[in-house]
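Memo to structure team: turn this sequence into structure tokens by end of day. - J.P.
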Amino acid sequence: MKTSTLLLLLLLLPAAASAQGRRGPGGPGGRQPDGLAVISSFSGRENFDSRSAGLSGSFALGKAGAYAFSGSAGLTHHRTWTRGPFPGELYDADLGLKAAGPKWSFGAGARSNSDKPYASVHETDLHFDASTTLRRSGPHTLLFGVNYSSQRSFLKGLPFPYLAYSYVNEKIQLFLPFSLRWKLSEKSELAAAYLPPKYFNLSLTRKVSEAVALSLSGGVRLNQYLLAGRPDEDQILFLERPYAEFKVSVTPRGWPELAVTAGHGFEGRYFSGRQYDEHHGEVDVKGGPAAGVSARLPF
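Reply from structure team:
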């Protein structure tokens, strides 16, 4: 992706924190419902087997005046077996706080995707977002915000402004740019999302009973890691993986939600660079099967 294209996307990018509380729990851009989630997954690619296990949670912290406060935390461990230079152990760690009011919303956090999370400021992304509603008319909302990230691969350490638009009614939740939830019927829903520089997801979910839902999804996952002790502190390790998967979710009344996934990871790659369009030391990763299980306990 050319730098000029990325700049345009970032100037319009509605960061996740910018829309908190504006579409209801779990909606595009809104915070997840309060609860605790556990995940475990395995991918069997040739010379790139990987196993992941993680725990995350989101929770309400109460209200002060017109503002509702919430927090989130998560930690995932990735173990990879490969003959290449890819690290054998990596972590995704994240802490966040949000405050949502009738007109203004704020979010701040510390994310550390690294082999040694939070080891220093060089492995930690401190991020902040503030947004306000410029105009709301029926289902239409126009937002203006400012986003800051200390480790973003573009405009690192500099705040940038953005505009975002949302359209919400009983069937459609649209947020530009770009996430969409479209209720096709009482039992079916289509969802899509795109996040620069290269992440997208498309899914179709069908509820077959009050407790069971089936979902088919696919897209490209792009993970970014800040390795401890790297000679160039601006260097980022990128892992890009196209995928397709099928998920069965079961939510018995009064019990945690359980989900089982099975799918396939297509040919991907990993490389390093100061930004996504720099491909230093690129290594191709072959495809292979993938599976996972997860459980979520609402508060």
